[in-house]
Amino acid sequence: MAKKKEFDFGREVKAIARERVGRIPAGKLIEPKTLRKKPKHKKPLDQQTEGQ
After folding, report:
1. Which of 1, 2, 27, 43 pairs as cysteine with 47 (C-beta 3.0–4.6 A)?
2. Distance CA 39, CA 51 (A)
3. d(CA 21, CA 18)
């Protein structure tokens, strides 16, 4: 005999939300700082010191 499937309230709520709103975008990996693209233009010296 097959086991009766239990009703999962949380799963049902998520399914209804996906139906109404749509799927959320997939997560994106954060690249290590050494592999990121360098900025095209360097910031002026006065702005660099404020950020640090």
Report:
1. 43
2. 16
3. 5
Give phi and psi for 2, each to the nearest 5: -80, 145
- Token pair belonging to 6: 């239990």
Residue type, 30: I
pTM listed for this prediction: 0.38
Residue 48 structure tokens: 């660099």
Q: Which residue matches tokens 């997560």?
A: 27
Torsion of CA 43, 48, 50, 52, to 10 degrees: 140
For tokens 């499937």, name the residue. Answer: 5
pLDDT in tens, 6-52: 889 999 999 999 899 988 888 888 888 888 887 788 777 775 555 55
